[in-house]
From TrEMBL:
Protein name as annotated: GntR family transcriptional regulator
Keywords of the record: DNA-binding, Transcription, Transcription regulation
Transmembrane in keyword set: no
Domain HTH gntR-type: 2-69
PANTHER family documented for this protein: GLUCONATE OPERON TRANSCRIPTIONAL REPRESSOR, TRANSCRIPTIONAL REGULATOR, GNTR FAMILY
Pfam families, sorted: FCD, GntR
Annotated region described as Disordered, given as residue ranges: 208-231
SUPFAM superfamilies recorded: GntR ligand-binding domain-like (SSF48008), Winged helix' DNA-binding domain (SSF46785)
Organismal lineage: Bacteria, Bacillati, Actinomycetota, Actinomycetes, Kitasatosporales
Biased composition (Polar residues): 220-231
Originating organism: Streptomyces massasporeus
Signal peptide range: none
Length: 231
């Protein structure tokens, strides 16, 4: 069975974000095909996609390599997110469906509950789902795609500290949903801008050691041709 290129692309991207493939390291089709249990064709297609997204660069005499973004480029990503997240919330206030609202409200309830209990691991996943759903509620595939790529790249370049006050952070999530539910685009934009501004301070550039990268490679198992779900 031929594994879709988008599945291979997701697997390689996830490993780049996790640091399994170190910045600047070569990405040979043969080794990647062996690692993910696929042929070289979907690997080749995945590398082209990842190059377009900025995760991979092609170098003369070296071929495909993991990109090495600068601190300035990393900073630009946070600035872009601070502009696009509020825009997405404003659009969601006008275009959201009842299904979007149901999911967003459910995530806020769970987030507030976990925040009171201090379950930081759960909060990180819930936060990601919240912002992904909010982007989808914007009704703009292009904007949703851009925000998704930004989240992947920011996760790759930054370690994110837990909020000093998780309860307050999820109260802000709730305020965003309230504005979206009322169809108040300006309020949704303003609350989301404040939320992303506060969240910016929790981001720290990653500076992993070679040993840490080696440990991640040794401990990582990332087949893409299995039936096991990947969360």
């Amino acid at each position: 069975m031929r594994i879709p290129a988008h599945s291979v692309c997701t697997a390689i991207r996830d490993d780049i974000v996790a640091g399994v493939h170190a910045r600047g390291s070569r990405l040979t089709e043969e080794l990647l095909a062996g690692r993910y249990g696929v042929s070289r064709v979907p690997v080749r297609e995945a590398l082209r996609t990842l190059e377009a997204e900025g995760f991979v660069v092609t170098r003369r005499h070296a071929g495909a390599c993991v990109a090495e973004p600068t601190e300035q480029e990393a900073g630009d990503l946070l600035e872009m997110r601070m502009l696009l997240e509020p825009l997405g919330a404003a659009r969601a206030a006008q275009r959201r469906t009842e299904a979007h609202l149901k999911v967003l409200r459910g995530l806020v309830r769970l987030g507030q509950e976990r925040a009171r209990r201090g379950n930081s691991d759960d909060l990180r996943s819930l936060d990601g789902w919240f912002h992904e759903t909010l982007a989808q509620a914007s009704g703009s595939p292009a904007l949703t795609s851009m925000l998704t790529q930004l989240r992947h790249k920011i996760a790759w370049m930054y370690a994110v500290e837990a909020p000093v006050s998780p309860v307050e952070s999820w109260t802000e999530h709730g305020a965003i949903v309230d504005a979206v539910a009322r169809g108040d685009g300006e309020r949704a934009r303003a609350v989301t801008a404040l939320h992303t501004e506060r969240a910016k301070g929790a981001h720290r550039l990653r500076f992993g050691s070679a040993q840490e990268r080696a440990d991640r490679v040794r401990n990582s198992q990332h087949p893409v041709n299995t039936a096991s779900p990947r969360l």
